[in-house]
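Usage example:
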Amino acid sequence: MDEKTWHRRTQVPLVLASLVYLIAYSWRVIGGLEGVAHVLVTTVIVATWALFIVDYVVRLSLAKDRRVWFRTHLGTLAITLIPVFRLVLLLRVLTHVPGMRPSAGSRLRTQIMVYGAGAGVLLIYIASLAVLEAERSSPDANITSFPVAVWWSCVTITTTGYGDFFPVTWMGRAVGTGVMFSGIALSGIITATLASWIFERAARDHDDAEPATRGQMRQLLAKVEALSRPAAEGDAEGR
Amino acid sequence: MDEKTWHRRTQVPLVLASLVYLIAYSWRVIGGLEGVAHVLVTTVIVATWALFIVDYVVRLSLAKDRRVWFRTHLGTLAITLIPVFRLVLLLRVLTHVPGMRPSAGSRLRTQIMVYGAGAGVLLIYIASLAVLEAERSSPDANITSFPVAVWWSCVTITTTGYGDFFPVTWMGRAVGTGVMFSGIALSGIITATLASWIFERAARDHDDAEPATRGQMRQLLAKVEALSRPAAEGDAEGR
Amino acid sequence: MDEKTWHRRTQVPLVLASLVYLIAYSWRVIGGLEGVAHVLVTTVIVATWALFIVDYVVRLSLAKDRRVWFRTHLGTLAITLIPVFRLVLLLRVLTHVPGMRPSAGSRLRTQIMVYGAGAGVLLIYIASLAVLEAERSSPDANITSFPVAVWWSCVTITTTGYGDFFPVTWMGRAVGTGVMFSGIALSGIITATLASWIFERAARDHDDAEPATRGQMRQLLAKVEALSRPAAEGDAEGR
Amino acid sequence: MDEKTWHRRTQVPLVLASLVYLIAYSWRVIGGLEGVAHVLVTTVIVATWALFIVDYVVRLSLAKDRRVWFRTHLGTLAITLIPVFRLVLLLRVLTHVPGMRPSAGSRLRTQIMVYGAGAGVLLIYIASLAVLEAERSSPDANITSFPVAVWWSCVTITTTGYGDFFPVTWMGRAVGTGVMFSGIALSGIITATLASWIFERAARDHDDAEPATRGQMRQLLAKVEALSRPAAEGDAEGR
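Running the assembly step on the lines above writes:
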């Protein structure tokens, strides 16, 4: 079996595994599990994690040129090593739903907005889980419950930063840094999409001053073509 | 009567109702009403709210295909259920004033800027009312007067977030989250409109290097058309 | 004398007056003047202010249609009534320096950047003066010196908002709100100018895939014109 | 030897010198050196600084027209006088690596993103060093360790500004101001690059409605050229 076949066949199970991972992770953090329940849920998390690592190793070994594959799949490596990143996979799946494939025009803008909103919500959710798990262990922490963690994520992703809540552990600060930069990227996506929409609206209604279309050009080329053919025939007949 | 006729006839009364709603809501929150006055004003608020719900139900029942109408009017549902969102209707009305209809070119940019500024001011006003009503009930609140609430809204919508004032109730934080994300959208609109303006300015003055216009193209197509007709006639005569 | 002649002749003196205003205002605030010095400097400030009001009244009385002039010069009114806005005049003057007139292409971008940077620096300076004068009178103020006011302005115009310093008076908060929104506009200008630059760079180097130019079009139109004229003459001679 | 030859030959040594400068500076700040070690490392820093000043003076004296060179190389002067700015040179070098030269299309976007990310990381690193060195001397400082300084830089460059840490010395605040404005520029670059990408994607797939290309135009011009030549020959023969 080659690498592409393997990847195609394992996509659906891996998406389900990442959903299981997300649910187990959410349960452990929000539920504040202890004792047997904690051990059980952690086992599920580790098991799904192991699945992704196995998938990565198999894909690497199946690849024709392992060095090339490794270099061109650094993103896959990141997704495999840091469990939190893996959940972005769930959104990548969205683009496989019919009617959600990347395409042109105003449909593209709708898709970018839907994807951006989805990524934003997922990011706020995951960041809230991650920061809560990191901060809970610290005695100086001020982010001590899940709703507070969600509020902190919203304040951070919009780069508002009141300072009523902030991470004090290094793990929590690493999560915070990721959230801030994601926030800048997300606001960039919103601005860029709005710009694309405004430009298209501004271009409408003065069609005569618009750039000539390639369609018009093909029409013209065909006409000139037709014009030069009979002329050449006429020339031939005239001799 | 069909749904469109109903919608056209009820638009003006509903705009007036939403104005009444806004005034009554403002009065209740800013005036800090108590006793009979509070009951009276609340009755007006509930009555106008009921009007919108009745309008929604009537429109749904008048629709040809109720499932399709429901799916394509989720925004109307949101506006009906959450009273605060309804006031955006007031701005939607602006686009019906003659000379304010969405159109092309630099007029579009002026309209977007006017609409954006209007939406921004309305949002700051409504958010200040909503956060004040939410926070007033809490003993730990630091947003305790309307001017402070307006200052907090401005600090939040620009995503500055000093942290001198911030919501402590969950309702207030929900309002805050909405204000932050609206702020990002508004700054995106400003940037995108400025970009459109700069692009158009940058394009002026080097007309020769500009994309050929569709007008030029139509001129050329007509000329080639005229060129090929007499040539064909000449051919016919020459034979 | 008509309004335009008056406006042309008074521009240079008014620019000098606004410079005197800025220097006197700066001196009063930063110097923390008292006694005779305070009275003297305040007299200069009021005198220059009076000059602008006189200029406004004269221009209004000289205008052909005073209603139209009033409606089309609301900006002039704002600049006349609120002294702080008047200093933007100094930057408007910049566009009259040779080589700084608004023009097209990459020169436009340089001008926007220079104007934006100038407006930003002037805004930070004026806002620092205004916030300091407003806050100095309050016993709860934390912005109590000019350097601190400048630091606060920088933190505010970038919408960072640490919260180590913030205005506590209503006048100071009004200044702060202006600075925040200016900051959003300035960052919008930076982004839009960068976008214009990136788009132009991205368009270079694949000239063949670029939109056909109006210059090429005029060339083609002339060629087709020339093509159709001798053909018509040939037809005429052939008969 | 002329100025250009000198500049070409000294580029590689100066890049190495700036690397040595960065390492020595990092060591002094992070290591918190004292005694002999401090003197030694400071000597290295001063020596590399001297190298850049010597380079500047030599280039100025070698220039054909020193006044013109001075006016057109103000950036070089800034880089020479403020050691921290010099390290941006390291990134300028990146553009000399084969395949990283500024070029058109989506490769340009990748380069801008790589350069932006590089500049961002370098800026956070240098700002953390600079703010730590500035703040360490103050008894009121809250930024007292390198990891805290990095966290502060991230919070500042994204303009989040929690206010859990902030500079209290004037040198530290100057660094902070630089970081904030850089953050706005960086987020502008991200937004502009995303906009360029979205515009290109939005343009794909409706090729017929796209502006006619210059390639199509050249094709057409050649065809009309060919059309007019035989016609002229035909005319000549016909006489």
